[in-house]
Amino acid sequence: MFKPTPSLQKMLRRLPLSTKQAGKEYYKGNRVGKLGTITRYGNFTPDWSLIRTFVYPELGTKNCELTPFVAEDMEKTRQTSEGFETYPKRLTGKDYLDAWKLSGGYDLVENDAYATGTNMPEPFEEKAGEKS
C-alpha cells in the first residue's frame, strides 16, 4: 500500500480521527454531550437531569411576553466598505408594471387594424415556396 512521505506522516497523526481511520469500535460522537448511560446489556438509559428540555409559553407565541432580540420593524442592513447600508426595496409585480407604463408600455393597441383591440399579433401564414 502507499504511504505518505515521512514529512507528512507527522502532520497526519495530529489530524482528528474519523471512523474510517480508526477501528470499527471507534465512535467519535457529534458534540451532543452525555445524556445517559449504556447498561452492560447494551441498552441506553437516559439521565433526565442531563437532557435539555424547552418549555413552550403557556399563552402561546402570539400572546407571549418574550420578544425577539431584534425588533421586527427594523430595516435589514448589510455591511459594505463604506459602512452599513439598507437593502434596496424588492421589485414587486405592481412596481414593474408601473415602471413599464411610465416608460411607454401599453395594454391595448391603439391601431384600428385589430378588431379585438388587444395587442396580439396577426397570425403569420407562410407562402408556398416555388421550385426552380
Automatic annotation (TrEMBL):
An annotated Gene Ontology molecular function: structural constituent of ribosome
GO annotations of cellular component type: mitochondrial large ribosomal subunit
UniProt GO BP: translation
Subcellular location: Mitochondrion
Organism: Ampelomyces quisqualis
Predominant subcellular localization, coarse grouping: mitochondrion
Sequence similarity: Belongs to the mitochondrion-specific ribosomal protein mL41 family.
Lineage start: Eukaryota, Fungi, Dikarya, Ascomycota, Pezizomycotina
Sections of the chain in a coiled coil: none
Keyword annotations of the record: Mitochondrion, Ribonucleoprotein, Ribosomal protein, Transit peptide
Signal peptide: none
Record Pfam families: MRP-L27
Name of protein: Mitochondrial ribosomal protein L27-domain-containing protein
